[in-house]
Predict the structure.
Amino acid sequence: MKLNLRVLEISGTWEPNAAERQAAWELYVELVTRVSVVPLREDEGLLREALTSLYSLFTTTREVLRKYGPEVAEPKKDGQYNFGYLAVAMLNYGVRPLLASWHPTLEDWEASRPADCSRRDHELAWPRASELRTALRDSRSILTAYAGLLASACGVPNLLQAVPTDT
């Protein structure tokens, strides 16, 4: 399988073994069922919940890596990538920068919420809400590329094609 994730400047090949295919499936299911790759429309959800969902990918990925062990991170011939490398790159380059920047910024705004204002109304009043939604869309393009790669590794059709992406 050829691999080219230009968004992270990772280019090479990956021929997954059986453990990697199983691990890829587990991570794929997590990605395609979260706001990470499913559009969050302007009138939907809370930005905090979106960031929390993305943050939970760290726990899920760690669990998958522990479950399948070293077999998913063993060096391969001809410098091929392995699931372990790709999963960690996804977290460190596709998720961590967004969370490192926006989690504390949103947290500061949340701390200023008056007691008589709902979380949703306060978030809608945040002057930077649109910026964060844009950052989430940008991150989604990276994670969508990963989801497509994982679908290929599993040998399944990309389930994201069933999700409307018009936002």
Q: What stands out?
A: The chain is about 60% helix and 5% strand. Strands lie at 2-5, 10-13. The longest strand covers residues 2-5.
